[in-house]
């Protein structure tokens, strides 16, 4: 059985006629079809034929259909039917959505502004609230699973793919046996407890949605690693850098919000429900002047004119109210900023409203002149005294225009690398603002198992220094480390009796090399032709 069985015009289960393929993923393909009974267009997700024979995959595929069908929310994709074709292929019939997923939207726009991100997060929280109320945890929230439908009334967010959703609160005897020790989901957006394979609840979805908002505003997730194991270690142990590290236009209120939501301990996170997350995130996006610049992974320092966030005149409805997103979108779309001019900060004060120093100086000179005239006219009424010291003439002092600070961004990979700036340790990554100066600075990075790296730079403009440490090669086996080749032992000398040479033989000439050790004397001494008495003369 192959994919050639799915062709345009084929009728599935007597109700759905295939029109054309919309896309293909790791689990199968998605087709646009026509519902013959309802006379409307729908979408059908088909399970890959190689996976349809696996019991665990078929069970998970059916779980997606039943889990999503139980959630009654306009922010969760609607499920119409599910089953298996005549040839055993699983399918789910669902409503057809026209638009793009959030990952495509972020890539197309280069990122989202805080108001745009708040709208996406708020609508996603409404769908999660409905799911969590009936004990369903999504467990794989990511930008690809948030679909954005845009029309004249605004945007509508739909949560997709409940394929690895789990109903919490069930007995652990049967609900958790099949996936003990498994890590299901996308590691980039996993909560620490899910990455470590621990028991999870609805707060894991809130952490994943927080990382989705982080990417939408900063242009990238908080942790990016090449290996999955290294990524899991970073998610479960390292502190996420503030999103302003990668997009300095973000206000400090958002940095504080992300720090409170990305705690490793679920009990220590600032929000424990989806509704709390939506309300607090919207407040953080609105509490201080936000930048209209979009985050960009290729150029994170995209700057634009600051603006005051739009504040709707009527309070928003609860996040669990269906259909409110269209009303809110219509209300907030045309509302002008309501912040009084006098309450604007220095960054948002209009040029015409700023005080003019030269007017203040002129007023001071006029007052001083009036005082001097009064003193001169009254001089005749006073007793003569010593002449007053000559006053220093007034000088027009013009303060120099302030020089804007430069932004310094430092980082190094791998994630456990340590940084030293001009010999002083700094965190990795590091972001700070300094006064510009042409002096030379040095960044040094070290990490276990990697060669150290350093780079010099000046702060005459904004600088971003990223050091990549190269892994050290495996130590070569030297001659001293190699096992010594055993030296063959010299054969042990064995004394063998040598017969005496014949009498006619001449004595051997003295050789330069030492003679071998003499053989033990025989029982009767051999007689030499030259008789030499070598006995002790004292005996």
A few lines on this structure:
The chain is an alpha+beta fold and 539 residues long. It is 25% helix and 19% strand. Strand 2 (16-24) and strand 3 (28-35) form a beta hairpin.
Characteristics:
about 550 residues, alpha+beta, Phosphorylase Kinase, domain 1, Transferase(Phosphotransferase), domain 1, six-stranded antiparallel beta sheet, four-stranded antiparallel beta sheet, flat
What does this structure look like?
By secondary structure, this protein is of the alpha+beta class. Among the domains are: 1-96, Phosphorylase Kinase, domain 1, CATH 3.30.200; 100-335, Transferase(Phosphotransferase), domain 1. It is built from twelve helices and 20 strands. It has a six-stranded antiparallel beta sheet with strand order 1-2-3-4-6-5. Strands 16-15-18-19 form a four-stranded antiparallel beta sheet, with no helix packed on it. A hairpin with a 3-residue loop joins strand 2 (16-24) and strand 3. Helix 4 runs antiparallel to helix 7 (202-218). The radius of gyration is 42 Å and the shape is flat. The model is unreliable at 169-182, 296-368 and 373-385 (pLDDT under 50).
